[in-house]
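REQUEST FORM: STRUCTURE PREDICTION
Request ID: SP-0412
Submitted by: Lab K.M.
Chain count: 1
Length (residues): 95
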Amino acid sequence: MACYVIADINVTDPERFAAFIEAVPASVQTHGGKYLIRGGSLEVAQGDWTPGRLVVIEFASLDRARAWFDSPEFEGPRQIQARSSNSNYVFVEGV
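STATUS: Completed
RESULT:
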């Protein structure tokens, strides 16, 4: 079953965060992930959730998503992200 990684990222240091944006795609590709949403404008249709930078990545399974998230390839970029943003990630299984 497909698994979607959904990240809500509030960037606090855009200059440093740029290095994260550049580094992550290779790690996603290595683990078979595919970006479905990567930033872009958004409009809140209902409720009070106002995401910062919204990212959705599709993986073949929850195991593949976890393997990417915990991988050495993503560890370095995740450290950059921690110093340049406040982020929330969820894994959601779907069709």
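NOTES: The first strand starts at residue 2 and ends at 11.
Reviewed by: T.R.
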